[in-house]
Design brief:
Layout (H helix, E strand, L loop, with lengths): L21 H10 L1 H7 L5 H19 L7 E5 L5 H7 L4 E6 L2 H14 L5 E5 L12 E6 L9 H11 E12 L5 H4 L8 H12 L11 H10 L2 E9 L5 E2 L2 E2 L3 H16 L11 E8 L7
Parallel strand pairs: 1-2, 1-4, 2-3, 4-5
Antiparallel strand pairs: 5-9, 6-9, 7-8
């Protein structure tokens, strides 16, 4: 299980926190494993945004200056592209996913890449990780938070399995994304209408994802003793009007590149309004007794 966007995926999604929806999420990813493999190989704007997000995640991993053969837990390994990139950096990877199809895809990709000796893959639920406390030097969770019925519980589990001083690299789908303010279809100003809209979508019993603000994610981290060390947002397209992309192809890519460059320079109004929030956090070290 990995990744989630409300106008990118081949299934309709909307913010939802029900535990009962988890089985729909797992079934969805079981049935779309090949689609997510293609996302990390494609060349259109949406694919490039996902690939840029992965590049940022890897840069944050490298910024952590992990020792050789450091132990890494990758939650939501998906099609295995990030798994292989981590293993090729000499890290020891424990990769998990709630989707059996994704587990099989990652295992096959690790074997094809010749890194199976550094990768262990299993099916597991992030809400109750099957590992002892303090087990890992690094936890990576890319595209996972949007699909969880209890993200705060999951973040607490991520913190639990980290050693003191260990690091977490996490992504979330940004509620404060630029398109939430530029497309009238996304701006539902009346809370009652918003609640009605969500209720109608839930009735369809489809796989659903959630949006979270960077502030909300930071609050979850703080509650579990994790302190952000670096953060940014990634992806500003496709810009849309009434749910339809207005700039596509090469023009859309150029606009996204320009907006991303401005965001990376800290431009107000853009710095934290990309599609994906990416944060690197550190677990507080234990204090030495006086």
């Amino acid at each position: 299980m990995s990744d989630g966007e409300d106008n990118i995926q081949p299934a309709s999604v909307e913010a939802d926190g029900r535990a009962g929806g988890q089985e729909h999420v797992n079934a969805y990813f079981d049935s779309t494993a090949s689609y997510w493999d293609g996302v990390y190989r494609g060349g259109d704007l949406q694919d490039l945004i996902y690939q840029r997000r992965q590049a940022v995640v890897l840069a944050y991993v490298e910024a952590g200056r992990l020792p050789p053969s450091a132990s890494v837990l990758e939650i939501g390994c998906g099609a295995g592209h990030l798994t292989i990139a981590l293993a090729e950096r000499g890290l020891a990877i424990e990769a998990i996913d709630a989707s059996q199809a994704m587990v099989e895809a990652t295992a096959a990709r690790a074997s094809e890449a010749g890194v199976q000796g550094r990768v262990t893959v299993r099916q597991a639920d992030v809400h109750g990780l099957p590992f002892p406390s303090g087990r890992f030097d690094l936890v990576v969770a890319v595209g996972v938070i949007p699909w969880l019925h209890s993200p705060s519980q999951a973040v607490a589990e991520m913190a639990r399995v980290l050693r003191p001083g260990g690091q977490l690299v996490l992504t979330a789908d940004n509620r404060a994304r630029l398109t939430s303010f530029t497309d009238p279809r996304r701006v539902i100003a009346v809370p009652r209408l918003k609640r009605l809209y969500r209720a109608l979508r839930r009735r369809d019993a489809q796989a659903t994802s959630r949006l979270d603000s960077p502030r909300a994610i930071d609050a979850m981290l703080a509650e579990t003793g994790l302190q952000p060390r670096a953060r940014r947002t990634v992806g500003f397209g496709p810009l849309s009007l009434m749910g339809r992309a207005i700039f596509e192809g090469t023009i859309g890519i150029r606009i996204d590149d320009r907006l991303q460059a401005l965001a990376d320079r800290g431009t107000p109004g853009l710095r934290m309004t990309g599609w994906h929030y990416v944060v690197r956090a550190e677990k507080r070290k234990l204090r030495n007794p006086a």
